[in-house]
Design a protein that fits this description.
Strands 1, 2, 3, 4, 5 and 6 form a 6-stranded mixed β-sheet that branches. The radius of gyration is 20 Å and the shape is globular. It is an alpha/beta fold. It has helices at residues 10-18, 20-27, 37-46, 55-65, 71-84, 133-150, 174-191, 213-217, 222-226; strands spanning 8-9, 94-101, 106-113, 117-122, 155-160, 165-169.
Length: 230
C-alpha cells in the first residue's frame, strides 16, 4: 500500500455520495462519528466466520470491545449469530487489510481478503435484491485499490450479517464506475475546503448536522461580514 497522508478515506467518499455537506461539517468537528455498536458487533462475529460460531466466546470478545454493551447489544449479537449459522462462510487469508489507490488518491480498509476476492462486513440485513448503492460504491472503490496494487481483479462481496446473506459483485459495472467518479469529484471538492450543497433526503432526519447545514449555507448579513465571530 502506498502511504498517502492526504488521501481521501473511502468512508468519506461514500458519505459524500449521500451528502457532501455532512462530510464538510464533520471535518471541522472531530469525534462526531464514532463506530456504531452494530458494526463493532458484526466485526467481532466476522472474525469467527468460517469456524464454529460459539456465542459465549464471541459475546465475551464483544464485551471487551464494547465495555458498555448491555441487553440491546446482547440481543443484536444473538440474532446476528443465529442468522449467520444458516450460511457456509469462507475463511479469509487476511482481515482488516489497508489498501490504497495512488491514481485516485483514496485509502481504506478491506474487512476480509481472500485469495480471489474480498468482502466488506455489514450488520444490517441484505436488501430484497442486489446490493445497497452505498455498498456498491464502497466495493467499487476497493476494487480499484486492489487492482492497482495486485494488477489483477478481485471479486467483491458484501456480507450482510443481519440476515446471514452474502451478495457478490464480480466487477464494477459502468454505472458503478460513474458513481465512483461522481463521488470522488464531490469528495475532492470537500477536501479542498469548498462548501458543497447538501443532498436532501431521508438521511437528513438522522444526520448529526441537520440543524447546522442551513446556517452554513445561508448568506451572511452585513453585520456578520463586518463582525465575524471569533
Amino acid at each position: 500500500m502506498v502511504l498517502m497522508p492526504n488521501a481521501i478515506p473511502v468512508r468519506d467518499l461514500v458519505r459524500c455520495s449521500v451528502c457532501p455537506l455532512q462530510v464538510y461539517l464533520s471535518r471541522s468537528t472531530p469525534g462526531e462519528f464514532a463506530e456504531p455498536a452494530g458494526y463493532s458487533i458484526a466485526k467481532q462475529i466476522a472474525a469467527h466466520l468460517g469456524d464454529e460460531l460459539d456465542f459465549r466466546e464471541i459475546w465475551e470478545e464483544i464485551e471487551t470491545v464494547l465495555p458498555d454493551a448491555g441487553a440491546e447489544e446482547y440481543a443484536q449479537a444473538s440474532a446476528m449469530i443465529e442468522a449467520c449459522r444458516k450460511t457456509v462462510w469462507r475463511s479469509p487469508v487476511n482481515t482488516d487489510v489497508f489498501v490504497s489507490s495512488e491514481k485516485y488518491g483514496i485509502v481504506g480498509k478491506v474487512d476480509r481478503l481472500f485469495e480471489d476476492g474480498f468482502s466488506i462486513v455489514r450488520s444490517t440485513a441484505a436488501p430484497s435484491t442486489g446490493i445497497y448503492a452505498t455498498d456498491r460504491l464502497r466495493l467499487t472503490a476497493y476494487w480499484f485499490c486492489l487492482f492497482e496494487e495486485y494488477k489483477r481483479p478481485f471479486a467483491g462481496s458484501v456480507e450482510y450479517l443481519g440476515s446471514g446473506t452474502v451478495r457478490h459483485l464480480a466487477s464494477p459495472a459502468p454505472a458503478d464506475r460513474r458513481a465512483f467518479l461522481a463521488a470522488l469529484r464531490s469528495a475532492e471538492s470537500v477536501f479542498r475546503g469548498e462548501i458543497p450543497r447538501p443532498l436532501r433526503g431521508r438521511h437528513c432526519l438522522s444526520c448529526t448536522f441537520h440543524e447546522r447545514c442551513d446556517n452554513v449555507l445561508r448568506p451572511k448579513s452585513l453585520f456578520e461580514r463586518l463582525h465575524p465571530a471569533r
